[in-house]
Amino acid sequence: MEKGGQDEVIELYVRLRSEKLVVGNELDTLRDLNKAFRDNLLHLEEQIWITQQEKCIWRRFKYSDPSVHSQNVGFLLKTLQNTKFVLGHRVLSHNATLISEVLKVYLQHPQAIAECLNNVELGVNKRSTALSIDDMCRCIFNVVYGAALLPSDERIFLELLSNLISLQLSSKSDPRKYLRKGASVFCKMYSLFSEQLYSAKVFLTAALHEPIMSLLSQDEIFLDVDPSKSPIRLTPDERKRKFGLDENSVQYKEKLTAYRRVIAEKLFRVCLQFVKSIQEAVSCFPASLTWLVRQLKTSLLDRKRVSREEAELICTDMIFTNFICPAMINPEPHGIITDTPISHVARFNLMQVGQIIQALALCPYEGQPAYMINILQMFADNPMPDFVKSVLRNDAVTLDSMFPAMVENDEGTDIYSRRNFIATIEEASLLMQCLKGQGVDAISDETVRNKLKQLFRKLPEDLVAVKMTKEEYGTPKAPLPRSSSGRLRILADKVQNVAKTQHQKLLTNLPGNNGVSNEEKTEVTQPSEEVTEVLVFEFSHGFIPLGMEPEDKVMSNAKTRNEKSGNLENSTVKKTRFKATESVVSDRTGTTDAQSEDDEEMDEAEGVGSLCSSMNDNMADDDGDEDEDPEEVSTLPDNFSDMVPISANVSGRGSPSLSGGRTSGRETPFSQGGGNPALDQSVASMAVNELSVNNEYCRVLPKLPVTVRKQNAEGLEEKFGKFGLPTQDGYRNRDETYSLVSDSWSTDVVASDNEGINDQRQEQNLGPLPPPIPPRLHESQSTGQIIDISDNNSHQAGPSGVALPHPVSLSSRDRERIADDILNKYRSPMTPSSSTGPLFRPADSKPDEVNYEPAVAYFDPTNITKCKAFADAKRKIRLVLSSAENIPSSVTSKQATTTASLNVGNNDSDVTVVRLNELLRFLLAESINNQNRILSAQIREVRRCLFMFDNRGIKKLFRTLKDEHRARTSYIMYLQQARLSLLQLNSYVNKLLLRIEREKNLMGDCLVDLLVRYYLERRDKFIKRFVSDFSRLNVQDERVYAVERTLCNLFEQVDIEPIWKDFEQERLNAIKMTMDRNLMGQIYGASLYPNGEADVYRDDVFFKSLKLIASSITPDHPELGIPKKYHGECPWPSAQAEVAIINAYKAPRDKLACVMRCCQTIESLIRLASGRNVASADDITPVLVFVLLQANPPALLSNIQYISSYYGNRIEGEEAYWWTQFTSAVEFLKQLCNKH
């Protein structure tokens, strides 16, 4: 029995302390994860805008837009890198809020913006509006919908496209012609959406990557779909060599017919690869496009303007003509092909393949040209129509299933969503010009239309003219932390701007300045670097953090769920939604732990708080950046009207914390855990969470039913009368630091109401225990001091000359009545303006019974677990036990050091009570020795609270602590689930950032490729002369020297040409690599086969020899010696796929990179099979031999000779290692061929 009591105390002590450590660590982690998620999401929004601008530059340069040319592309890219994101209100003042509201309305109402855009298009077609449909659609797609990158934006954009289908396609008499024309808003928006959609890029890569690479690997011959044009693609010398001299001879015609047949067969085989690959990738077809195509078909059939076959034909056009075939011809922007240029011959062949694939998809609905019939008849089974039908049959695709809410807040808003509109001032002006005027009049929803008209009336006509100069708002800054109120930030900026303007005027008027300020002089002498200024318009309510709900709320929600579901063990596991909450004040009418633990939140800031306080204390740590809106109605009572702003440190005569711990700036010494223990017995915390607009947590004022505006201090006496403080029981511990101000309301005051009283408190005889306090009484009102509002004792002067009353003797009944009368002000739901009577009743008036709650005794021996004393003691014991540091070895010994009971009135000893007393004694001595005054005060208060309980009550208290500790498992699970959700969200955002970075690099590569081609076209004579001279050289060394000299000449020009001056070094290296690829592509045939037909014949012999022995050589072949532990990955298809496309690359550097990828793939598979971190060359070479034997790439020997000749002197490091492995494997294959 003794050992059991001892173990129970120590076990509870250890568990409470461990619980606090775990929860504190979880909350710290959650706070960091919330901050990381907020910052990453903002960075993602900024990178999306920059990437879309680079894509716009590429598109305009490609289609020869006058605004983008070769001389300014580098400058535009450099300007984008210097982009500064500025909060919109810093530039446009209050107009930024109006713009945010307009864009938010359009974002939330897809039908309204669809109707508006449709009307704008009608005006452009009638030439009544001078707008560009392309610019308007691109601006709306990028600014309003954030490029539809996040799931929430993608869903809303799909709704916009669906509304555009109903307005533009379904209403036309010939919707197919309208769609193929491609000039409508729907076509522009659909094109932007399909190009940006990530799932569409995945599908296109799965369907087109392998067949395109296979096409690039073949010989450079034109595969013309029209047989009559095949000879035209050949030069006269080639025609003479292939067909003969006499074009009218029978032999010439037979050879020409045979050549056409060969071309048709090659084209059929290439197209068959594309058809099979597209058919196999049907499962990867993007769900968003599936839903949109089905919406198109349904809308067309509902209008009954077209037949079912014609509706399917239009859907086929939308899939193939507007999506798959354009990507097939230009695969680079989609990321399908990125590491090799596509020559003009290969591009022509891709166009021919695209025509055939399109014809195959449309042939069931319409006839095809005569020259295509022969090719189409080769396809015995045409799967393309079935592909479209399989997409249209997918009925399971819905918006709700495609875009489930990941994490929602209390308002039902998905947290994983954008929070800002990002645009330049020019883009914002274009949007306002497009979306107002006649476009608004076309909106059918009257409420939306009226709201937009009201907002547009407040906006100026020209936003650019409203833009502030840099002298007015300073140097552009990055968006500030979203911790302050929007109105408060605007007000602060206005004040700062006015102050700066006045200061500049003062400097201007000083003698010797000649009317020019110092800042203006600096601008004249030091021109600033070109900076793109991008405005950030906030439209959300801010970042709502996850996992920051108070413990009592989480426990209450868990209890409610358990009650609804019955037995928790038999109930089904439901998906947890983490919802951010606003300020919550517990009624604290019960005695459960969740209702009494709020007091501990204030102690956590000092490092000694309990588990339940860790919630709000972590919020208090970040409280410094949170500001209150100055225009909000105050919830403070009228007697706080003489206080200074909330930024003060302490209230009344309360001294700063002795512990030196960090405080939130609004706490009294009592709220930090170092207050009077006699007062702490009835203290109940009202600190709550205020989930701010930007993941900054702060302690806020408690919500009171009565809302009163702040008033001046002159009417204080008339409203409240005089304050009297009764005497207290002398048995209580006394502290001269006493405040009537609530801990969670703490702020500086000019003159405290109780300063004059505090000087006399040690001389007063303290009265009996305080009367019963209503359960909703705040801690500053639950101190046992009753306010006397009579006017009889007004002769006593306070420190400020204010008359203070003498304490008067009142009965307990009178005290209860007066206290309840005062507290009715806070209980009343009526505001002072609506109340028919005074806020406070005189002492002799009889209150209405309907406004009172029955008083509950503070200590009730008959119902001990329901009284407030029980809840207070339980809370304080938990606070002390969870804040202690060491486990006392003396307490853990088997022999008791004392037999004295905590209750001196009861001499019955109990092991649990004795052990608890021993533990408290030890902790008290330890805190005194460590000079931890706060903890020592708390331990003394715990011992004092336990004094009023007998052993039976203490054991009940102890059991309740254990039960509640077990019940708090749900709170730990809540924190862990919140952490998991945040980890997932951060993972999603990081992946999106990587994807955006990859897309930005891809656009840069596409721009570089276009610029290099343009540059080489300008030097066409030089390139043609080099090709001509190269073809006349016969010695290989001379050819290598000619290539190196020409590349060196081109690279030198890169450093001095004006077209490249604005590019950074990384881009310059990419430019040189692209020049190398293009130059080697011009001489690829002659450099790959320097000996002509002899090299071709040698490669053909080696290819056929490998093909013969491939079936007889297995991984078990003794000459290979591949260990059996590696046979599980046989035949290493991924490595074969890498080396099989070596002929698709034309530059020797790219061919070597292909070899390296093959070897590295083998190495990774060997490490996977062996479980080791390193794979030796003896393990890699046998596997590489088998991979090359099975892949058998054509022209393997010529490729080795090509790389060694034109890149051999530049191979070093890792490249040299893998190249040695590769050439060794090829030499071993030669030996195998000789043997077999």
* Sheet with most strands: 3 strands, mixed
* Radius of gyration computed on alpha carbons: 41 Å
Q: Pick out the low-confidence regions.
A: 469-487, 498-528, 571-808, 828-853, 894-908
The end-to-end span amounts to 88 Å
Number of helices: 50
In spatial order, strands of the major sheet run 1-3-2
- Beta-strand content bin: under 5%
Region (Disordered): 508-529, 556-679, 757-813, 826-847
Main location: cytoplasm
Protein name: Receptor-mediated endocytosis protein 6
Subunit structure: Interacts with GDP-bound rab-5. Interacts with alpha-adaptin.
Quick summary:
The protein is an all-alpha fold and 1236 residues long. The protein is 57% helix and 2% strand.
Q: Can you describe what's shown?
A:
The chain has 1236 residues and is mostly helical. Among the domains are: 162 residues, no CATH class; 221 residues, GTPase Activation - p120GAP, domain 1 (Orthogonal Bundle), CATH 1.10.506.10; 95 residues, no CATH class; 146 residues, Up-down Bundle (Glutathione S-transferase Yfyf (Class Pi), Chain A, domain 2). The strands form three sheets. A three-stranded mixed sheet has the order 1-3-2, with helices on both faces. A hairpin with a 5-residue loop joins strand 4 and strand 5. Helix 1 packs across helix 35 and helix 1 crosses helix 37.
